[in-house]
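Quick one, tokens below. Sequence please?
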């Protein structure tokens, strides 16, 4: 891993700027779920992972309480991640259809996965100041990816927060619209592609299907040019 990115990830992992989130992570990591009762939770902010030469970035809003917060890797160890990586493997972005833990030898092709917020918030609802506290981490991650062409936003909340950060940074009023499969041009020239979140609810109600997500990532690869 690049030294600059490695140092950024260390800073993210050690961040304690948001007391409410620090407290909630501690609670989640000590109470645990029944099926994970014997596991030692990661219990810290979750940095992004992937290829520094990435042309594609996949972003969510925040780590899952018993997914990333448990395993230490975004979209790893929960049902949303299971669905996502099955689709990523199908289109040749991931070398494995399963993302279990930090030691599973998972590798991504020209892709970086991260969350806008590095800590799980209570009820998955971050406060405005928490998003702002974390925004410079997300900004630095994106700036480190020098070959980046496309961002796939998983879910409307991630999309809204990502575009909001860009609007604030570049002081623009443009309205960005979330619609599955729709592309928008960000003020720095990157393309943002909307994708329904692969949550169990969305998958069970067929708001998003395997075919829909596979097709979307085929489109993302084409737009990202790899």
């Amino acid at each position: 891993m690049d030294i600059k990115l490695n140092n950024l990830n260390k800073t993210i992992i050690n961040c304690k700027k948001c007391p409410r989130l620090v407290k909630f992570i501690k609670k989640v990591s000590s109470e645990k779920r029944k099926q994970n009762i014997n596991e030692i939770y990661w219990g810290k902010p979750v940095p992004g992972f992937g290829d520094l030469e990435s042309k594609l970035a996949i972003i969510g809003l925040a780590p899952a309480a018993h997914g990333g917060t448990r395993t230490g890797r975004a979209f790893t160890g929960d049902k949303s991640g299971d669905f996502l990586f099955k689709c990523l493997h199908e289109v040749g972005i991931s070398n494995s259809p399963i993302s279990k833990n930090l030691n599973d030898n998972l590798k991504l092709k020209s892709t970086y996965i991260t969350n806008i917020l590095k800590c799980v918030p209570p009820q998955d609802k971050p406060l405005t100041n928490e998003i702002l506290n974390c925004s410079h981490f997300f900004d630095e991650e994106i700036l480190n990816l020098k070959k980046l062409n496309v961002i796939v936003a998983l879910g409307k909340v991630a999309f809204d927060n990502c575009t909001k950060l860009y609007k604030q940074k570049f002081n623009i009023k443009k309205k960005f619209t979330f619609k599955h499969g729709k592309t928008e041009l960000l003020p720095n020239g990157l393309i943002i592609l909307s994708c329904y979140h692969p949550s169990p609810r969305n998958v069970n109600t067929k708001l998003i299907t395997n075919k829909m997500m596979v097709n979307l990532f085929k489109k993302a690869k084409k737009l990202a040019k790899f």
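The helical segments are 3-13, 19-31, 68-71, 79-90, 128-144, 156-170, 200-204, 210-224. The chain has one domain: 3-224.
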